[in-house]
Write a structure and sequence with these properties.
Blueprint: H1 30-43, H2 47-58, H3 69-79, H4 92-109, H5 120-142, H6 144-150, H7 152-157, H8 166-190, E1 196-198, E2 201-204, E3 207-210, H9 218-235, H10 239-247, H11 249-270, H12 279-282, H13 285-309
Antiparallel strand pairs: 1-2, 2-3
Helix pairs in contact: 1-5, 2-5, 4-5, 5-6, 8-11, 9-10, 9-13, 11-13
C-alpha cells in the first residue's frame, strides 16, 4: 500500500472544460520558434549589406536613426509575445508574391536590370527592403496571415531601418520647403514684418532669406514621425487616435520650420544680418525640435486622457 500523501483537487463539473492555456503559451508554439530561426537565417546572406548600412548610417545625419530601429522593432516584438495568437494556416500566395518582389529588388539593385543612376541610398533601400519583405513572406508561410498581423507593428518599424529612395527623400524635402515657406510667410505677416516673397526667397529689411533644402527639417520631422508611431503604440489603444497622433506631425513640422525661419529672420532684421551665421541658425535644430515636442506631448496627453475616460470596448 502506498502511504504517500497526494494533492487533493476538486473535481470539475460534468461537461466543464479545463481552464484555457495562458495567452503567452502561443509564443512557445514550434511555428513561432521556426519563424524566429528563419528571421536569423535570412539575415545571413545579407550580412555584407548590413555592414554597408552601418557604415552609411554612421556617416549620415539624416539616417543615423536606422541603427536603432532594429532594436526598437525587436523590443516591440518581445512585448507582443503575450498576445501572440496560435499560428494560422500558411498563406502561400502572399508568401510567394512578397518573396518574388524581394527577388526583383535584389536583381535591380545588383544592376542586372538597369539600376544606373541609383544612389547609395537607393541600393541600400532595395537590398535591406528585400530582407524585410522576406521576413514578411516567411511569416505568411510559417504563422499565417493572423500571425503576421500580430507582429505587423515591429515589421513596419523595420521600414525605417534603411534609407528612403532618393526620389522619395527629394519629394518630402520639396514639400517641407514649400510648406515651411508658406507658414513662415504667414508668420512674418502676423508679426508685421515687412517682407516680399518670391517662391522660396524672402526679401526682408537688411537681408534676403532663401528656404534651402537644408531648411526643410526633414531629419527632425522624420524623428518626430517615428516618435509618434512608438508613442501611439505604447500609450494609446484606439487605432484612430494613433493615426491622428501620427498625422498631426505634418502640420507640426511645418509650424516648427516656419517658426524657425521667422526667428532667424527677426534676429537678422532687428539685430543684424550677421545673425544668419549664428548658432541659432546652424546648430538650433535640436532646440526647435524640443519646442515641437511641447504641443506633441500635450496632444498625446489629451488623447490618452480622453481614452481613459471612454468606456472600454466590450470583448
Amino acid at each position: 500500500m502506498n502511504s504517500g500523501l497526494t494533492e487533493s483537487r476538486p473535481a470539475l463539473p460534468a461537461g466543464a472544460a479545463s481552464a484555457p492555456a495562458p495567452a503567452y503559451a502561443a509564443a512557445a508554439h514550434p511555428q513561432w520558434r521556426r519563424y524566429a530561426w528563419a528571421a536569423g537565417l535570412l539575415a545571413l546572406p545579407f550580412g555584407l549589406v548590413f555592414y554597408e548600412l552601418v557604415r552609411f548610417a554612421l556617416a549620415s545625419d539624416l539616417y543615423s536613426h536606422t541603427l536603432l530601429m532594429p532594436v526598437v522593432a525587436g523590443y516591440f516584438a518581445w512585448l507582443a509575445r503575450p498576445d501572440l495568437p496560435a499560428p494560422g494556416r500558411a498563406n502561400w500566395l502572399s508568401a510567394v508574391l512578397l518573396a518574388g518582389l524581394a527577388g526583383c529588388l535584389v536583381v535591380w539593385s545588383l544592376g542586372v536590370i538597369g539600376s544606373r543612376g541609383w544612389s547609395v541610398e537607393d541600393h541600400l533601400a532595395a537590398r535591406v527592403g528585400a530582407y524585410v519583405l522576406l521576413l514578411a513572406a516567411a511569416g505568411f508561410a510559417l504563422v499565417g496571415a493572423r500571425g503576421v498581423r500580430a507582429v505587423a507593428f515591429p515589421l513596419g518599424l523595420l521600414l525605417f531601418a534603411f534609407p528612403m529612395p532618393t526620389a522619395l527623400t527629394k519629394g518630402i524635402e520639396v514639400f517641407l520647403q514649400h510648406g515651411s515657406a508658406e507658414v513662415s510667410h504667414l508668420l512674418f505677416n502676423l508679426t508685421g514684418t515687412p517682407n516680399f516673397r518670391t517662391d522660396l526667397l524672402f526679401q526682408l529689411p537688411r537681408i534676403s532669406l532663401l528656404v534651402a533644402p537644408e531648411c526643410s527639417g526633414i531629419h527632425s520631422s522624420l524623428a518626430l514621425f517615428i516618435t509618434s508611431l512608438v508613442a501611439g503604440k505604447l500609450f494609446l489603444r484606439a487605432s484612430w487616435r494613433r493615426i491622428l497622433l501620427a498625422v498631426i506631425v505634418v502640420p507640426l513640422a511645418l509650424l516648427r520650420n516656419g517658426f524657425r525661419i521667422l526667428t532667424i529672420g527677426l534676429l537678422c532684421v532687428h539685430i543684424g544680418p550677421h545673425m544668419i551665421n549664428s548658432a541659432i541658425h546652424h546648430q538650433g535644430g535640436p532646440i526647435f525640435f524640443a519646442l515641437s515636442l511641447v504641443p506633441f506631448g500635450a496632444l498625446l496627453w489629451w488623447l490618452r486622457r480622453a481614452e481613459a475616460r471612454s468606456p472600454a470596448p466590450r470583448s
